[in-house]
Amino acid sequence: MLKLVKFEFLRKRMSFMLAAALIVLGQIYALYKYFSINEVIRDNFTEEILGIFLGALAVGLILLYLIDLIFLFRNDLFKQEGYMLFMTPNSGYKLLGGKLIFALLEGVAIAGIYLSIAFINLKIMGLESLNLSLLNLSTSEIIIVTKLLMLMVFMIIEFALTIYLSFALFKSLFSNNRFKGLITFGIFILINILKGKVADLASTVLNNTFETIHLSAERFTLLGMGTTLNIAIAATLISSVLMYLGTGYLLEKRINL
Amino acid sequence: MNYLINCINLQKNYLKKRALVNINLKFQEGKIYGLLGPNGSGKTTLMKVIADLHKQTGGEITICDEVPSHKTKAMVAYMPTENYVYSWMKVKEAVNFYRDMYNDFDMKKALELLSFMDIDLEQKVGSLSTGQRARLKITLTISRKVKIYMLDEPLNGLDPISRAKIKECIIDQFDEGSTMIISTHLVDEIEQILDEVIFLEKGEVVLQGETEEMRIKRGQSLEEIYREVYKHA
Questions:
Q1: What is the reported pTM?
Q2: CATH classification of B3-229, choosing from 2.60.40.1250, 3.40.50.450, 3.40.50.300, 1.50.10.10?
């Protein structure tokens, strides 16, 4: 599996270098623009400017990451060069696992880059006081933050797997169907609708449960959030495992490259 | 008799098109087979089913007594006709990829063959000429130590120098303990090295047998037989 992850890193190194160069240039340009603003306006709206910059950067990075997740698998399944990977004696599950691990590591790296940029800009703009520290959070708050991060990770995996399952269906069960593209897209939509329905159901059950319990406002929020997160994590994890097994099976037993 | 590949009533359909129709074939150890036929006759489909890149629609197939899976991929070295080596790689990275992914890959042999094929390790695959790419593909495939080698159209669209180098490579590197299947429609180029030939037409085996026996029996060269078999194609 590690060899597969190493291969994905090798494949992406040029894109990484290009992205890094673009980020540095973007940062320099943003700072240039920031210091070009009238000093009075700049001093009064520093936090707002930083917020807009970091918000735009987050949206940009997330979009790029999602596009990259799609192409990570698409290129191997739909291009001739994919034979090179699919000819190797690795099972479908292993090939998929390698890509998921890489996707996760890439996500962590992007998050790290984002936080570094945020930190650097806080320093440059003299807003260190805004710098949040986990040390100021209570234990239950730290647990909530950790669960939120876990949920984000699982949601990324789940999102990637929904797309990968659709691709695998396209190249296996429906590879001989004239309307395979349409059917596969329909299945992608259906999976997402199903996931939404399950989430709605879980949230309804939760709300009904909490309405019968009387707790202080703060405890209610933390307890409620914690339980909601537990259920969301469990649901995302179960859905990811099911999709991983399904996609791995199709890659192993039914693929027509 | 030691058969490495066994196909029983093998079928493969694409939509309504029948790419393989009830194929019954056995491939024996120590022989080089020619899979002959015009474009669209089913040669590549048969190879892809053996390589487990395509799944059959019906019938059975075994590779060393196992149904095709990721396990049989370790026994089969397949060279597709497509330019499958990642164009972003340098030649040395492609070689390293094979070393990492295949336990049977012989690095020393690969480096010797690359030198024989006049391919620079530092060159980018995307910048190689058609002939160089074909030579790289065959080097990577032949440098594995496996029971089954399959070369899909290894001489197609190549210059005489590349063709000569590839033919020499095939003859020198063939191991009696393995089997090699070469698909081609350039029969005259390769007929000297084929032990057995299988003629495919519209997914069906229309003629098969020992090359030498067929030549003597019919009093024709393999190319003449080919022309006769496909005169209506």
A1: 0.85
A2: 3.40.50.300
